[in-house]
Design a protein that fits this description.
This protein is α/β, with parallel strands linked by helices. The longest helix is centred in the C-terminal third of the chain and has 14 residues. It starts with a strand and ends with a strand. The chain folds into two domains: 192 residues, Quinone Oxidoreductase, Chain A, domain 1 (Alpha-Beta Complex), CATH 3.90.180.10; 132 residues, NAD(P)-binding Rossmann-like Domain (Rossmann fold). It contains ten helices and 15 strands. Strands 3, 4, 5, 6, 7, 14 and 15 form a seven-stranded mixed β-sheet that branches. A six-stranded parallel β-sheet has the order 10-9-8-11-12-13, with helices on both faces. Strand 11, helix 8 and strand 12 form a beta-alpha-beta unit. The radius of gyration is 20 Å and the shape is globular. The structure holds zinc ion (ZN) (2 copies). The site of one zinc ion (ZN) has 8 residues, from helix 2.
Length: 336
């Protein structure tokens, strides 16, 4: 039996539609018949070889929802026909120092979906059992897929940030991650300030639940946030080091800047600006149980991504929409 997949055959190569044999799962893995796969900015790492040790050809994609259609011999907790998802966390070893301390996402031998093994730009994929997330039937596949990376990152960073109901919380960047972060912040009870560049973004932010919008092209972000009493937490979702650096003075004393997406350039932090106990944190996604908590919260609260669907044959176009910021807000690949 063969399947369609979209692969990259070398760093910087094009995304190409190919026919491949449908793979069989090893003993600790399952095969998933894919319903949908979101296109995340981190897929650039696969396409352009920005992650060390990628073996090509490689199928990108780490925001997958589908159903288990074959189960490996050692798999005990997952059944044929079960609805599952896979995010960036592609599995952990269970025996390294970090795993033994319960920090599975920082496993020294961690697998990354779409990086260390083939991901979701395909009709089928193989996933390690330690990567699997249960996905409720009430969530449409294409809507649930982006939640597994973009949604998890914002939800999990937010619930671990120390922000409390009523606190001013700012979201920098309103794209794939940011438009979900605004919704999560609003539903968690924070005074939610959306920050981006341009008036056109303000129109897009309407309906996401933001209490105010700051246009970084014309407004002084820090001054605007201070006029609101200062932000207890700022979540930086855009790869825009200048924007992030300029926002730090908008924090309250002991306020926290959470970096949840990689920026291309280094940050410039004026050190006196953080001597009041302000701090800078990095945050990356979460474990599979965090994902299930997040999906349950989206069902409870109504948080949903805004998506554009593309068939597998147009994966390269979906990727280009993501890269140029044309996707409103998340491109999702849906195999026929
Ligand atoms: Zn991602
Ligand atoms: Zn480990």
């Amino acid at each position: 039996m063969s399947m369609k997949a979209v692969e990259v055959d070398r760093p910087g190569g094009d995304l190409k539609l190919v026919e491949r044999p449908v793979p069989d799962p090893g003993p600790d893995a399952v095969r998933i018949k894919i319903e949908a796969c979101g296109v995340c900015r981190s897929d650039v790492a696969t396409k352009d070889g920005l992650f060390p040790g990628i073996v090509y050809p490689r199928v990108p994609g780490h925001e997958i929802v589908g159903r288990i259609d074959s189960v490996g011999a050692n798999v005990v907790a997952w059944k044929l026909g079960e609805r599952v998802g896979v995010g960036w966390h592609g599995g952990n070893c269970g025996h390294c120092n970090e795993c033994r301390a319960g920090d599975f996402t920082n496993c020294e031998n961690r697998e990354i979906c779409g990086i260390t093994y083939d991901g979701g730009y395909a009709e089928y994929m193989i996933a390690r059992q330690s990567a699997l997330v249960r996905v409720p039937d009430e969530l449409e596949g294409a809507a649930a897929a982006p939640l597994l990376c973009a949604g998890l990152t914002s939800y999990n960073a937010m619930r671990n940030s120390g922000a409390r109901a009523g606190d001013v919380v700012a979201i920098l960047g309103i794209g794939g991650v940011g438009h979900l972060a605004v919704q999560f912040a609003s539903k968690m009870g924070f005074k939610t300030i959306a920050v981006s560049r341009g008036r056109d973004k303000k129109v897009l932010v309407d309906g996401l639940g933001a209490d105010a919008y700051i246009d970084a092209d014309v407004d002084d972000i820090a001054a605007e946030l201070q006029a609101m009493g200062g932000a207890r937490v700022i979540f930086a979702t855009a790869p825009d080091a200048k924007l992030i650096s300029s926002a730090v003075s908008g924090l309250t004393p002991r306020g926290k800047l959470f970096i949840v997406a990689a920026a291309r350039d280094p940050l410039t932090i004026f050190t006196p600006a953080i001597l009041s106990g302000r701090s800078i944190h990095g945050w990356g996604a979460g474990n599979t149980r965090d994902s299930e908590d997040m999906l349950a919260f989206t069902l409870q609260s109504g948080v949903r991504p805004r998506i554009e669907k593309f068939p597998l044959e147009r994966a390269a176009e979906a990727y280009a929409h993501m890269l140029t910021g044309r996707a409103q807000f998340r491109a999702v690949i849906v195999p026929d």
